[in-house]
Each structure stands twice: as structure tokens, then as C-alpha cells.
Amino acid sequence: MGKTDTEMNKLILSYQIAPSERPRIERGRVSLLTPNLGPAIDVGLAVRRRSAVSSITMSLEPAIDVDALSKSFGKIVAVDRISFVVSAGTTIGLLGGNGAGKTTTIAMLLGLLTPDSGSIRLLGHDIRGDRFRALARLNFSSPYVELPHRLSVHENLNVFAHLYGVSRPAERIAELAHDLQFETLLDRRTGTLSAGQKTRVSLAKALINSPELLLLDEPTASLDPDTADWVRGYLETLRVRHGVTILLASHNMAEVERLCDSVLMMRGGRIVDRGTSDELIMRYGRDDLEGVFLAIARRDPGGAA
Questions:
Q1: For 39-43, 218-222, 274-278, which range has the lowest pLDDT when averaged over its residues?
Q2: What is d(CA 25, CA 263) in angstroms, rounded to the nearest whole number?
Q3: Which of 44, 53, 68, 183 could form a disulfide with 118 if both were Cys (CB 3.0 to 4.6 A apart)?
Q4: What is the pLDDT of residues 135-153, one digit of tens each?
């Protein structure tokens, strides 16, 4: 049997912190156990050891370089020999219907699933042998992966600040709370927040280590139009000001058209087409990207193959 979307989201949750476990912070580290990962790795150690020379060298590498990547669950092929390259400082959309392979691809990029074959390089690091150096320079956010409900917003962000070795965690948390407009929520338990408030806090968690690469899964799902528009504007500003590379998995086609430099279209575990939104719209003879998405998802013979 293949993994359902719910099971995959639970797996991605293991990249976060199990809600039932309260971490202990000692001497700038976080000590905790998770049932899936065992002792937590001090990702911040990799941050602190990264030299300026290596940072300059890595900046010349593509942010993401995936080659012939495959993953199966029993007889079900979830990802089938996909290859793509994402240049640093760009935003790429990863689109496809349910079961297309998007979540499995993201889980492999995060090192949570081991590919059956193929290779992944993130910011110049081979994910198989150098996973934690890569993780120190990236982050992930999804509204379907919640932070521990019993901890306050500040406590949750403080945990991740220590995991990533942020030098001045209190200042960084205050900065993000101001930028993302949730300063009044810092002392509230995370479980009491609305969907929009949780999205802002989750985004702050994903930005706590000033990542060079940001993986986003449906970042504006369940948000009202005004809040969703604000989040998109923030992501645009983030890329322009800080050069962050973003991989965006979304079902909101207008969002993808607005944010993404290029788009990868997945179906049945394969990348079946790619290009800018305008190129795909013209190629399929549709009015917008939603029409392209439907043509591919439904295997419309009138569209491009």
C-alpha cells in the first residue's frame, strides 16, 4: 500500500517536534527525543561551522539539483525518475493533482524519505551524505504540519531558534513577530490561534534561521483572501530583499502565476511539462494556468502532451 497524504504529512511532522514532547534547553542546545528521529541533531552546529568561503562557493551552485529521482511504496510508484534544476534566488512552482508525487518529492528533498534511485543536491550539498549541512541552510512550512499546541508561540519559536543555532534568538523572534505582525500573540498557546495566525507563526518558524532555500506546501491554504494576499506579498518581498530560493507546492493557480518564475507540472509521479506560466498557457491554448492544470490532470487530448 502507498502512503496517503495524511500519512505523508505525519512523516513530515517528524521533521518538526512531536506535540506531546516538551523540549529541554540547556547551554544553547535543545535536548529532545522524537519517536521517528531519535535524539535531535544540533542543526545549529552546522550553521556555526559554515565558513564564509564555503558560503561564497555554494552560492555558485543551483539551489536545487535533482537527477532521475524515484520512489516507490510497494507496487505504487510515487515518483518516477524526475529531474529538475532550480537556480538560486528564483521561485519555482510544483503543481499536480492529489497523488501526483509532490509531497513525496518534498519529503525526499527534506531527507525524510530515502530515494530508491537518483540524486539530490541542495545548495551544493548531497542530501544522502551531507543532509544536516543542507538542512541548516533551508527550512520548510506547511499549514498541515502544526507546531505543538501546548507551547506558547514564543516557546515554539525559541525551540527552533536553538535547534538552528540562532545567535540572538530573542531578537530574531521579536524581529519576525514585528515583520509578520503577531507581536500580541507571543505569549498565547499555539493551539488557541486561528488558521491565519497559525500560518504567520509557521512562516516565522520557517524563517527563524534566515534560510537560503524555503520549501512551502500550500502556504495560503485556509486563509481569507486578504490574509492570503498579504502572505504572498511578504514572500515576494522576502525573495527580492534576501535572495531566498522558494519551491512552492500549491493548488492555487493565481498564486503560482503571481509568485513563480517557472512551473513543474506533475502527474502520476512524473514531470509531464515545465515552463513559465505564460509559456504553458500558450502551449495548451488556455486562458490561464488553471486551464493548463485541468488539461494535464484530466489528460485532455486537446492539450500538449
A1: 39-43
A2: 41
A3: 68
A4: 999 999 988 888 999 999 9
Q: How many domains does the chain have?
A: 1
SS3 of the chain: CCCCHHHHHHHHHCCCCCCCCCCEEECCEEECEECCCEECCCHHHHHHHCCHHHHHHHCCCCCEEEEEEEEEECCEEEEEEEEEEECCCCEEEEECCCCCCHHHHHHHHCCCCCCCEEEEEECCEECCCCHHHHHCCEEEECCCCCCCCCCEHHHHHHHHHHHCCCCCHHHHHHHHHHHCCCHHHCCCEHHHCCHHHHHHHHHHHHHCCCCCEEEEECCCCCCCHHHHHHHHHHHHHHHHHHCCEEEEECCCHHHHHHHCCEEEEEECCEEEEEECHHHHHHHHCCCCHHHHHHHHHCCCCCCCC
Q: Which domain holds residue 69?
A: 5-297
Q: Give the pLDDT confidence of 41-69 residue by residue, as tens digits.
A: 344 444 444 433 334 334 568 999 999 99
Instruction: Round to whole Å and give the CA distance between 75 and 60.
Output: 39
Q: What is the pTM of this model?
A: 0.79
Contacts of 236 by beta carbon, 8 Å cutoff, 6+ apart: 258, 259
For a pLDDT cut of 70, what percent of the chain falls above it? 78
* 114 inside domain: yes
> What percentage of the chain has pLDDT greater than the value 90?
65
**Average pLDDT value for the chain:** 83
Mean pLDDT computed over 208-222: 92
Is residue 305 one of the residues assigned to a domain?
no
Torsion on CA atoms 253, 258, 262, 268, rounded to nearest 10 = -10
Q: What is the pLDDT of residue 9?
A: 52
Looking at residue 30, which CATH number applies to its domain?
3.40.50.300
Is there a domain that residue 145 lies in? yes
At 279, give phi and psi (nearest 5°): -65, -45
